[in-house]
Amino acid sequence: MLENVFSPVRIGTVEIPNRLVVPAMVMNYCNADGTATERYIACHEAKARGGWGLIITEDYAVAPEGRGFPNIPGLWDDGQIEGHAELTRRIHDAGGTIFAQIYHAGRQATSLVIGSQPVAPSPIPCPLIGETPRELTIPEIREIVKKFGDCALRAQQAGFDGIEVHGAHGYLIAQFMSLHANKRSDGYGGSLINRLRFPLEVLADIRSKAGSGFPVIFRISGDELVPGGRTIEETAAIARVLEHNGVDAVHVSAGTYGSGYAIAPPAAVAHGWITGYAQAVKQVAGVPIVTVGRITDPLLAEAVIAGGKADLVAMGRASLADPDLPKKAAAGRFEDINRCIGCMQGCMGMISLYQPATCLVNPALGLEEELRIRPAETKKRVFIAGAGPAGMEAAMVAAKRGHEVSLFEREDRLGGQYSLAAVPPAKGEITAFISWLGKQLADSGVSIHLETELTEEIVSREKPDAVVIATGSAPAPLGVPGSERAVTAHDVLAGKVAVGRRVAVIGGGMIGAETAHHLARHGREVTIVEMLPAVAQDAQEYVRLFLLEGLAERGVAMQVNATVIAVTEEGITIERGGEREEIGPFDTVVTAVGLKPCNGLRSKLERKAARLLTVGDAAGVRKALEAVAEGYRAGLEI
Ligand code: SF4
Question: Which of 23, 244, 266, 507 could form a Cys-Cys staple with 593, CB 3.0–4.6 A?
């Protein structure tokens, strides 16, 4: 089924054993001086062992003032080579091929990170960063060109098999190429050939230093998706020029920081949504073309290549979720692939705070050695209460370590309330994680007791060695007069209650906003009532962007800065700015005013269980990212 995916391809002088590529992704794992850490090396090593055809590292800054993040790698100094040479040695020992992506962030750097004013072709702020950059002089441009060449040479000396020049995503090279950011009227601005002067000088300098046999991929945004930005027609023209200037492959992505959702799209964006850009470039360029863009399944990668849209497929977050994806795909073990669900919580959610990247579905990401699943010294009987993601994760890890694990769930299915999170539009992929966990539990011999609540009596009778309480959370009460007339968002999402035509959703956090979206998509007239000035403020930026777009499209009304005083027979009484107001009428009032931990079992077991651990929402209501990580660690601790 994957004959195209598992066929070799050449990029310049290097043969790539299969078509699955790890693209550059900021992880924030390196030291602040750009040198490699064990964490950085180990995370790439896991992917090399997992069978990826080509690993492209995250962006190596060509100069300290070109860094967009505080803990990315750098090769601006010879002293940085040795640590990164250790990386390439270990990747090669594991059978992998590794290219270094090299870049300068230009105006997409911030003075917070680099300690000085960012530079750019023109003094125009990046729409996201908002800092006005300093316009580069021509001597400064020539200096940066040389830094790219020097960086490529250091990458070669460090043992990388090639490099990728980052000309995408609105960084410095992209800024020169785009009329959106480049307003120069000298030899580096204006006409297309002038705007290409900087990247072509960079390529020439790289070739003069690293030689013609050192493979070079050029990454470019097919469409910048910003007003006045480059579109695919001009990108295709550029690709031909790049090919004539010795580029060995073109990697076609999309977006700039002004359209950041395109760089790391959330679950609301379709899988493979920009393969058409790659195809447009492939039609005019003779070098291998790499595509990217929320491709999480090897079967989709196969169809993209078989359809002639691209030669290689980059699967970034899919490689964070499961570094062993290629190996499993090659063995036909598709059900064992742990899939990226597009949640954005661990990857973008963390790196946008300048924190190390994590992954909701793969808590061991970046902690591969520390959190390795090793056999337990003593086999124990472990009871786990609650089959939400925290409980399932704990059960899976404990069972893989050799413990005898029994998992108790009072509902008739696995997943707990997390299954309900899959109901609103664009959230369906959550089910992939739950079904993956279910398969792992079955394979590792966990004894699953559905429709069975773990009780004090069962624990007293059976005397397990350890109990993990993962009983999750329940909707918090509204606590105003007339609350009994309302139904919970949980019951709505579970399909347990009938919902009328005119609906008010009280609580505009993510659960409330997504429930409103779900109802609006099913023909209801929905009003969100929120006490804060805006809704869905707890959602990751790009998730929120699409959610708000969906709410607006469906005409969902917003009552913000509104405190609910009462639910009446006709509607709702709210207070805003000291004034009371009646809103409605509503046929159904839905509450989504937060969650409270369900952990009543804990106090009952405190003196009964030899070892007692509480994880996930039962320990304190937070995101699924934390719940899953706690479950994993509990499985290791027992
Ligand atoms: Fe995918 Fe979520 Fe993991 Fe990011 S945190 S890689 S979006 S599953």
Answer: 507
CA 123 to each of CA 106, 131, 367: distance values in angstroms, whole numbers, following the listed order: 11, 9, 41
Strand 588-591 vs strand 404-409: parallel, antiparallel, or unpaired?
unpaired
The answer to whether 493 and 520 are in contact (CB under 8 A) is no
Q: Going along 26-145, which residue ranges are E strands?
A: 54-61, 98-103, 119-120, 134-135
Q: How far apart are CA 300 and CA 313, in angstroms?
A: 9
From ligand 1's centre to the CA of 626, what distance in Å? Answer: 13
Any residues with CB less than 8 A from the CB of 32 and at least 6 apart, and which? 70, 71
Active site residues: 171
For 181-261, where are the E strands, in sequence order? 216-221, 249-253
Q: 442-488, pLDDT tens digit by residue?
A: 999 999 999 999 999 999 999 999 999 999 999 999 999 999 999 99
- Count CB atoms within 10 A of the CB of residue 140: 12
580: number of CA atoms within 13 Å, CB side?
4
Ligand 1 pocket check for 317: Cβ under 6 Å: yes
What sections of 246-387 are H helices per DSSP?
A: 275-282, 298-306, 316-321, 325-330, 348-351
Protein residue whose Cα sits closest to atom 3 of ligand 1: 359
Q: Pick from 150, 163, 165: which is nearest to 103 by CA?
A: 165
- CA dist 477 and 472 (Å) reads 16
Ligand 1 mutation pick, 340, 431, 437, 623, max ligand atoms within 8 A of CB: 340
559 close to ligand 1 (CB < 6 Angstrom): no
Q: What is the DSSP string of 119-165?
A: EESSS---TTT-PPPEEPPHHHHHHHHHHHHHHHHHHHHTT-SEEEE
Q: 429 CA distance to ligand 1 centroid (A)?
A: 11
Q: How far is CA 335 from CA 2, 158, 321, 329, 439, in A?
A: 15, 38, 14, 9, 8
Between the CA of residue 315 and those of 22, 288, 326, 385, 531, what are the distances in Å? 6, 16, 11, 35, 40
Take atom 8 of ligand 1 and give the residue whose Cα is closest.
340
State the CB neighbour count (10 A cutoff) for residue 286: 9
Percent of the chain with pLDDT over 90: 99
Please write the tens of the pLDDT for every residue from 265-280: 999 999 999 999 999 9
Does the pLDDT of residue 610 top 90, yes or no?
A: no
CA distance 67 to 78: 17
* Structure tokens that stand for 20 in this block: 């699955």
Give the orientation angle of helix 197-210 with respect to helix 138-157, to 10 degrees: 40
Supply the residue whose CA is at minimum distance from atom 1 of ligand 1. 340
pLDDT in tens, 550-598: 999 999 999 999 999 999 999 999 999 999 999 999 999 999 999 999 9
Phi-psi region of 625 (alpha: psi -120 to 50; beta: other; left: phi over 0): alpha
